[in-house]
Amino acid sequence: MSAATETAAAKRPANGGRRRLRWPHYLLIASGLLVLLSLVRVIDDADSVTSSGTVSAALRLAVPIFLAGLGGLWSERSGVINIGLEGMMILGTWTGAWAGYQWGPWIGVAAGILGGALGGLLHAVATVSFGVDHIVSGVAINILGLGLTQFLAGLIFDTGEAKALGGGPRQSPTVDPIMTLTMPVLSGGKIGGWQSPDWLGSLERHHWFLVSDLAGILRGLTSGMSLLTLVALLLVPLTFLVLWRTPFGLRVRSCGEDPYAAESLGVKVYRMKYAAVTISGAFSGLAGAFLVTVAAPLYQDGQTNGRGFIGLAAMIFGNWRPGGLTAGSLLFGYTDAMNVRGGGEAVHALLLFVAILLIGAAVWQAVRAGRLRPHAVTDAARREVRTAYIGSALALVAAAGLLVWFMLSDIVPGQLVSFTPHLTTLLVLALASQRLRMPAANGLKYRRGEAR
Fold first, then answer.
1. Which residue of 66, 114, 172, 315 has the fewest C-beta atoms within 10 A of its own C-beta?
2. Which DSSP letter does residue 446 get?
């Protein structure tokens, strides 16, 4: 390699020219997306896209997803793959409903957490102590959770007092709802005996560009929020603080990166893995308890509907970080809310929204490739440039297809609308796969004292 080539290679940033995004950048991106969403709403006259009802439903649908994702985050940061989140959620729904209809919703929440934690403990025993393949153990937990709850529902909910209260072989008696909160003055909440005006609702009903959209979003976040939803949202910063700002969290993450190095420094690796996987199950159980105390007032067979797997996808999309996990969960919750609240007309507006985003992504990829091209002096760098150009071309083709679809139709067929959340999961994982880095020892078998 010549001196000029070495100089050109040295000028290229080690991270490929990418800058690390900080909070101001994220706020700017969020503002741009809100402006674009408001523009799409006005063009397609789809008021449900940013309505307070849609935002409230999106938050309610996203909470069990990101709780399950937080469970996966705790487990996989310790080096244990957990695809049994769905089964642990199912255990949480049954135990939460069983205790909730008898002793109140908060006792049901505690019981749901305990039921999920027992599933996590079983997964830890199988994978950590006995060295069972993590995938096999997770599949077994899913099968066990589904079969056990179906058996117990028929045994307990279909007899005696539970049956008299409305229980049956596939559902529990109803559970009392958890108290909701509404912000006074902004969203029409009460202060003492005085009913405050609903300023945000008034702004939303005018359907003004951007102003009404912002009012609808804020009203959806401040009106009728369950107290358990607020508790669940606080678990996101709490997880970050524990895992990234405490000695305990450092020990857990070290087990997921290099358990033998952690062992050499005196970390009790088995203990850390057990703790993390049990906490993982507790989060999944809390997600299940949320479903039977907030999302619906009873347990029903098949209630989780794959949310544990979507939570796992949200965790991967978030690159095993709480912030990214939350963003991914809100995305999946929002697309699901489009299915519930807006139907084909709202999803039709999202076609234009996604098409514009793809055009922006294509331009960004082309600009990035142009910046990298002068410094592409190695085969790997030249492949990166080619990949960027190919990605730009594919994004333009997809954008053109969506624009044609948008202009030639007025509504999206119902079958595709119901599949939108799952399609979003697949697309997001495909687009995010190039920037992901899971914990280095995730899924690897560990045995004390066998370091090489």
1. 114
2. -
Residues 6+ apart with CB under 8 A from 103: none
Query: Phi/psi zone of residue 449: left (φ > 0), alpha (ψ -120 to 50 degrees), beta?
Result: left
- Residues 6 or more apart whose CB falls under 8 angstroms from that of 2 comprise none
Q: Are 127 and 277 in contact (CB under 8 A)?
A: yes
Q: Give me 203's structure tokens.
A: 């702004």
Report the alpha-carbon distance of residue 238 to residue 411 in Å, rounded.
42
Chain-centroid distance of CA 227 in Å reads 20
Q: What is the DSSP string of 316-354?
A: HHTTT-HHHHHHHHHHHHHHHHIIIIIHHHHHHHHHHHH
- State both tokens at 392: 């730009």
Q: Residues 217-245: pLDDT tens digits?
A: 988 888 888 999 999 999 999 999 999 99
Predicted confidence (pLDDT) per residue in 257-306, tens digit? 999 999 999 999 999 999 999 999 999 999 999 999 998 899 999 899 88
Enter the tokens of residue 401. Answer: 């297809």
Distance CA 176, CA 152 (A): 21
Please give the model's pTM, rounded to 2 decimal places. Answer: 0.88
Q: Is 439 left (phi over 0), alpha (psi -120 to 50) or beta?
A: beta
- Provide the CA 16 distance to its chain's centre, in angstroms: 28
Q: In sequence order, which residues have a C-beta less than 8 Å from that of residue 168 and are 6 or more positions away?
A: 153, 157, 158
* Cβ-based burial of 279 (10 A; exposed 0-12, middle 13-18, buried ≥19): buried
